Amino acid sequence: MTSAEKSQRPGFARPKDASGPWELAVLGDHAPKTVRSGKPLPFNDARHLQAHQFLVDEAYLLDAQQYTEWLDTLTEDIHYFMPVRVTTASGAGFDTSPGMAHFDENKYSLNRRVARFATEHAWTEDPPSRLRHHITNVRTFACDDDQHLIVESAELLFRSRGDVNEAAFVSCGREDLLRRTGDQWKLARRTIYVDESVLRMQNLAVFL
């Protein structure tokens, strides 16, 4: 994808000197650098159907809070990144804050977060939230090699906790890198573009 094409996608705008915002992240050095090639795959393409099923199956695991099983769907070099969105003038060329992120994680930190849920210190999720991940607008792109796919999706997370507090929503776009490992696809990189510059949810003790 050319720089001009990137700048025409306001929901995914990036600094001009980086192929992806993960390159400006603290943990971005280890992130896979694979990028898309060409136009979106047809919806009846087997690769698109496999990628779509991956996202639906993943949403089920996250809704059911089966986080240990979810970790098994991630590669060892996973980069899980959610930059802070900023409001900028048209033509600025970016809409995320370099060096700032809500999530900037690797496999180790994600494992530690999941392990904490099983302790008595996970007060943000005890009692656990009721979650529903709605996934739509899925587009899949081939890469230069057959072992990777870039997958775009839109997500709306509904979260309810307790009996008094109002439910909360998070709307975001995601750009994922899937890697074929053996006979299955795994998530190698996720960049989450939340649709708010100021999040209204009390905490982010969940996964998007």
From TrEMBL:
The keyword Metal-binding does not apply. Residues 1-20 are annotated as: Disordered. Its EC number is 1.14.12.19. One of its GO terms (molecular function) is 3-phenylpropionate dioxygenase activity. Transmembrane segments: none annotated. Pfam families: Ring_hydroxyl_B. It comes from the Bacteria. InterPro entries: NTF2-like_dom_sf, Rng_hydr_dOase-bsu. Keywords: Dioxygenase, Oxidoreductase. Belongs to the bacterial ring-hydroxylating dioxygenase beta subunit family. NCBIfam families: PRK10069.1 (NF007479). This is 3-phenylpropionate/cinnamic acid dioxygenase subunit beta. It comes from [Mycobacterium] holstebronense.
